Amino acid sequence: MSADEIVSGWTCSLPGRLKRQLQVLTARYEIFSFYGAGYDQVLLTNYLIPYLFEKRLNPSIEKNGNKVNVIKVKKCHVAFRDVVKLLSPGTSLKQFGQLFNLEQAKAHFPFAILTGVDSLKVPQLPSRLEDWHSDLSSSKQPLTLKDVEEAHRLFRMSNCQNVGDYLQTYLRLDVDILYKATQGWRATIAKEIGVDFVQDAKFTISSVSNFAGDLCTSKNLQIGQFFPNSSAVYRLLRKGMRG
C-alpha cells in the first residue's frame, strides 16, 4: 500500500474526518458586529477589502442593496457577520444585553458634538441634554437627564481625561456587551433547539429555523409524520417564516 493510499484511507475514516472537522472549527473566526451590515462592514469594504486583494486573499462580499451582509476571507477562514440577522427586527444592543441580565448597560455618547478631531480633546462631556441628541444613535428612546448623569459617572469611573478617552470606553463597553450577549444567545438556542449557529454555520433566523426543523424531523421521522413534533421548533419556524 502506497503512502498516498494510507493518507487517503485515514482521511476518509471516522477519526480522520473528525480531525479534519476539528481543524476547520479551530481555524475559523466568525466576527460579529451589531448592525454592521449598514455601518461597520460598509467601512470594511472601503478600507479592508482593497488591502486583502493586494495580499491575494480574494475576499468575497454578500450585499443586499447598500448593506454588506457578509465579508468572507476563505483562505484565512475569517468571516465578518451581523448578529442582527439572528434577532427580532428592531432589537437594539441595549435590549440584546438586557435579555441576559448583563451587569454592563449600554452607554450613551454625544455624537452631535463630534465636528472634528479636536472635539476628542474636549476635557469633559456636555451637560446640556440637547447636545446628546443625534441621528447616529440607534436607540429609539429619547435620552433623559438621568442618562446624561450616568454617562458622566462612567466618564469619572473610567478615569477619562477627555471625550476621546470616553469614546474608547464607550466602544469597549459596546464590544463587551455584544460578545457576552451573543454567547448567551448562542447557548440559549443550542439548549432550546440543539442548534449551535456558529458550529453549524447558520447565521440567519431562517437558516436556523430550517436546520432545526430538519434535525427534529430526522429524529422523529416515522411513517405518515411530516412535521416536527416540537412546540419550540414550531414557534421558531413560525417566527422565521418568509414570504
Give average pLDDT, whole number. 84
The dominant shape is globular
Q: Largest sheet, if any?
A: 4 strands, mixed
Low-confidence residue ranges: none
How much helix, percentage-wise, in residues? 40-55%
Cα(first) to Cα(last) distance is 55 Å
**Order of strands in the sheet with most strands:** 1-4-3-2
Helix tally equals: 8
| Radius of gyration (Å) | 23 Å
Strand segment tally:
4
Structural class: alpha+beta
Q: N-to-C SSE series?
A: HHEHEEEHHHHH
Classify the beta-strand content into a percent band.
5-15%
Quickly count the domains: 3
Topology:
Elements: H1 3-12, H2 14-27, E1 29-33, H3 40-54, E2 60-64, E3 67-73, E4 78-82, H4 93-98, H5 145-157, H6 163-193, H7 205-220, H8 231-239
Gist of the model:
This protein has helices spanning 3-12, 14-27, 40-54, 93-98, 145-157, 163-193, 205-220, 231-239; strands spanning 29-33, 60-64, 67-73, 78-82. With 243 residues, it is of the alpha+beta class.
Characterise the protein shown here.
With 243 residues, this protein is α+β, with helices and mostly antiparallel strands. The chain folds into 3 domains: 3-85, no CATH class; 93-180, no CATH class; 194-239, no CATH class. Helices cover 47% and strands 9% of the residues. The chain contains 8 helices and 4 strands. It has helices spanning 3-12, 14-27, 40-54, 93-98, 145-157, 163-193, 205-220, 231-239; strands spanning 29-33, 60-64, 67-73, 78-82. It has a 4-stranded mixed β-sheet. β2 and β3 (67-73) form a beta hairpin. α1 (3-12) crosses α2 (14-27). The radius of gyration is 23 Å and the shape is globular. The mean pLDDT is 84.
